[in-house]
Amino acid sequence: MARRPDRDQAFAAYVAERRPQLYRAAWLLCGDPHRAEDVVQAALTRLYVAWPRVQRADSVDAYVRRALVNAHVDETRRPWRRETSASDDLPEREVRPPDPGERDALWEALRRLPPGMRRIVVLRHFWGLSVQETAADLGISTGTVKSQTSAALGALRAVLAEPETEREYR
Amino acid sequence: MNDTLEDRLGDRLHRLASEVEVPGFAPGDDVRRGRGRLRRNQALAAAGSVVTVAALAGAATTLGGAPAGEEQAATTPAAEQRQRPAAPKAAEAPGRTPVGTLEQRLGEVATDDEGSGQLAQLQAVAAALDDQLGDQPWVRLGMGAAPTWEETGAADCPTGWTCEDVAVEGASRARLATKAGVSQVAAEFPGQVVVVTVTTWDRPADHAYTGTTGTDEYFAIRGD
User: Fold this and answer.
1) Across the strands, what pairs with B195?
2) CB distance A24–B17 less than 8 Å?
3) Pick from A59, A88, A92, A63: which is nearest to B36 by CA?
4) How confident is the model over A67-103, as pLDDT tens digits?
5) pTM for this predicted structure
6) Which residues of A touch B131 (CB under 8 A)?
7) Closest Cα in chain B to A133
8) Is the CA virtual torsion A74, A78, A82, A84 positive or negative?
9) Per the CB < 8 Å rule, is A160 touching B16?
10) Which of residues 88-107 of A touch B (CB under 8 A)?
């Protein structure tokens, strides 16, 4: 078992390198900066506990990705956690969403997807996982991944095809 | 646009995400939170062990459940035989000091059942318990299996238990439940869900997760 200082040092180095990307993925999943921060914190906490094994197995990225998705599942299943587990460590600085002038309608379309479909879209298209990898991460069948991906893409196309005014006033 | 959405979605998501302003962070804060969780997990797992370990000294016999022979006679179908967890070789001799992690201990007391691969599953669960809870004075080990996740009860977290998702190698999902000296992991492998229970004292009064086979059998894994 790794000695605690070694573990802390290696873990901190990993966090320093990967946290921004994890936050961005969480932001896509949650659509809310505070919930994204909660989800990232939960995932990294789990990662710390499991660190010796996942590091030995050279599966840190895969583990934290799964932990992030599971934390998002917990968030969506238990919305009251938002009130009870909000971190005391949230940044005081307001986090800006992407510039509305630059972002396309994708964000709005993504936001309208059910959480489960959003997870599949993020895993498949943001993280670039295969159908099989996505199914394994989410604990669902490959058939479900395929059908949900198809449904999600259909929903995205439908929203992206809407005139901008209709999108804004939904 | 429809034809290219799928092809370009990855790029568009990355562009969208890259516009998000990432809040400042200190890795030390994540280290601190991780340490806190690890301490809590270890404290929960160790609770209740102090008083009862001495009382269990020398108790190396299997507690509860039907004797192996009787159970085998009652459940002869081959399908049920396959569902049975890996069988312990033998109860340990008293006076032996526990050595190594739970994963190592399990390797010493269990054998694979006709090459079913269940021992590897149990060892993967044991490795996850080691990682989650660290070295613990485990006294009893229970093993069970169920056909589905729902049948184990892992979809819920009973009152009084602390539950969290854990990573188990080879499992599509796994959940750890902990309460006062009792820790259970339900891990979903292809074809079955394995339930492993370890205690730092006697056989647990209740379970968060149960298998449809094997759950009532407890084996001594410490004989000091």
Assistant:
1) B144, B186
2) yes
3) A88
4) 999 888 887 765 454 433 333 344 444 445 555 544 6
5) 0.56
6) 49-54
7) B172
8) negative
9) no
10) 89-91, 93, 95-99, 102-104, 106-107
